[in-house]
Amino acid sequence: MYVYILRRLLATIPIMGLVAVFVFMLLHLSPGDPAVIIAGDFANEEQVDKIREALGLNDPLHVQFGRWLIDLLQGDMGESIYSGMPVTELIGQRVEPTLMLTLCTMVIAISLAIPLGVIAAWKVGTWIDRAVMTLAVFGFSVPVFVIGYLLILGGSRTLGWFPVQGYTSIFESIPGFLSHITLPALTLGAVYMALIARMTRATMLEVLNEDYVRTAYAKGLATRKVLVKHALKNAMVPISTTIGLGVALLIGGVVVTESVFAIPGLGRLTVDAVLRTDYPVIQGVILVFSFTYVLLNLLIDLTYVLFDPRIRY
Amino acid sequence: MPMTALADVFTKSVRTVALSTPIAVAGLMAAAVPVSAQSVLKVVPHADLRNIDPIWTTAYITRNHGYLVFDTLFALDENLEVQPQMAAGHEVSEDGLTYTITLRDELAFHDGSDVTAEDVVASIERWGARDGMGQKLMRVTESLEAKDEKTVVLTLSEPYGLVLQSLGKISSNVPFIMPKRLAETDPNTQIEEVIGSGPFRFVEDEWQPGNQVVYEKFEEYVPRDEPASYAAGGKVANVDRVEWRYIPDAATASQALLAGEVDYYEQPVVDLLPMIQSDPAINVETVDPLGTQGVIRFNFKYPPFDDKKARQAAMWAVQQADYMYSIIGDPQYFEEFCGAYFMCGGPYETDIGSEALREKDIEKAKALLEESGYDGREVLILDPTDIPVAHGQSLVTAQALRDIGMNVRLVAMDWATMTSRRAVRDAPEDGGWNIFPTWWLAADQLNPITNISVAASGDSAWFGWPENQKIEDLRNAFARETDAEKQKAIVEELQAELYDFVPYIPTGQYYQPTAFRDNVKGVLEAPVPFFWNISVE
User: Fold this and answer.
1) ipTM score of the complex?
2) Is there a domain that residue B454 lies in?
3) Domain with B480 in it: what CATH number?
4) Domain assignment of residue B476, given as a range
5) For residue A42, which residues of chain B lie inside 8 Å, CB to CB?
6) I want to staple B390 with a disulfide (CB 3.0 to 4.6 A). Which of A70, B256, B300, B437 is the partner?
7) Cβ-defined contact of B132 to A48 (cutoff 8 Å)
């Protein structure tokens, strides 16, 4: 297994290389010239050119790419064209809120969605099943920002339980952290929960019709034991795949959720950078996101071993 | 369980978690001590502060940041007159060619060093290399020298009527004074440190681009004795900290203001004002009395708008009310009609020549278009859909031009792409453009020199590159003239020519409301949001 993990980790290198080339090319071939944006309305062509020169944008693409790659290999992602701050520092400032938001969302979503999916499958065809599925359809169809606004209106403005916006680091104050993260995590969790609940229900339905489940019941095992120990364990492989793939969905949702709740995370950093064609920052965050995604996939693959002993790496 | 009981349970359980965690307790205590002793003004600014150098960029947000941190030699007051600010006073020689400016005592930078004449000279030179008005001043400057620690001498090569107006310029780029070591930075490179001599100090450690900017009161700042008036007068910092909290979503920012999480929301969206105004604890005021001018700009390099008649046709095809209702909506926040290229309410307001803008006459527009020889070619209007004020102007213009028979294509894009595309000088079909929308604050449009959209110097003019010698001669005459009445006469002649030449369509004058909670006192009426004089109760 360790060989497998090492092989997979090594395989991330060419993947990241491809991502790097693709992102770089895409950015530099798309319209938008940061030098013109920086120069503003009063600058003449000569000044714009000087700024372009100062930013190194006048060099041929391959030279710019080479420079970026060499710096990257030394752990230097460059500096933001606008603020002049190192990209690693900008990303560093933003990692915690996004990581915490994603983790809290996953915890809330998984701990609610899997039981709901199991119950829906167990009580298939009843009003419970229909209620769970209606909730899932709602969570899946209503846009993230609408759920966000509804929660702000209910949880912050009407009840006054949670702040409207902002973020408090977990290291600064746990109550502050919890009160700030709850609404965003619920917002972001809605679609994720819907996805997992539906997947759990579907796989559980399949498994519950298997012979060994009938045997378990025949042996006189309690329903809870049959559902959790026998059925759910076997249903977990496709469910964990969905959980893993759903993270991509989360990354998209993070951007919106962070904007609605004014959380200074990586999603907002990405949007702001894209809107201003801040090349080094965009390149940096996309690399971080894709690296996380590749690692997460590896992690999911490894969890299969836990659920299905037949799988060997 | 009633909601309050539920809330109690939640609070209690949260408290239990916190108390059982030493890190959290330590964090809470650390956070509580300094904040309780300080008065803080929490502001939602109109944009995120990306750049810290107000000479390097013209962005309004950086200008507003500049005013907190830096000070100026001269400044504009509410009568639109230039007053000394860091200057104790100045003398002009009899021939009008030599300005001797003396600095106030007790001026100090945030790093503890004194402000000297050398700092002033270096700062003005750097600004003069970047700013349009600064460049004009530098062109007639023979020498700019520090005579001693406190005296700056500016010698002109020819009489120039706008020396003080230039040095007391209120909007971007403002000639802020920096320490010499920073002012010696190449004008095309950003300064790496924010050290000014203004009433607030930039707290670099707490700056998080995209999230927050923090300023602390600079205790050593000595304000002038006069009351604050626009950028002039005593800049008294009445709060210990000013925190800018960037909230990109307008609905969230409004809710944060309603919930009391922030005190001051610089530019609320007009659509959401009824919701904000429903809370009696919130004041909504038009802090900028001069307002903003909408602008539809033509490309003079390519047909059809290289022909004056086509531009005149466009002007007869539109009316300001259509634009204003589209982009602002509530008539409380815009002028019914403003025919002044240099703003209504400004010193050079006149409606000479504005008939075409006042009335919409489709038949006349069609006739003019035909006279221009328009051949039915496609007209590209850039349409930045992410900025409502710009997007609305593009849509209204497109419809008006279609009404007179033009073949119009709206090219949808985001604002950043538009700012690059409008600089492209190629033909519209090769990646160029015919029309783009924008807006300018009145503070930038008040006279023929700062209003760069009327400049008509061809290739060196603002995007669109119009060329008209008469306009340029009149602008130069205005700059050289030292008599205010004669300057007004020049502006009248200039405006008549502008309405004939149509460098752009002024699509109306509107006012941006600002919202703040009633614990915020002393908000100054000014074209730039200033944060001195404000106290928080």
Assistant:
1) 0.78
2) yes
3) 3.10.105.10
4) 292-510
5) 58, 130-132, 172-173, 452
6) B437
7) no
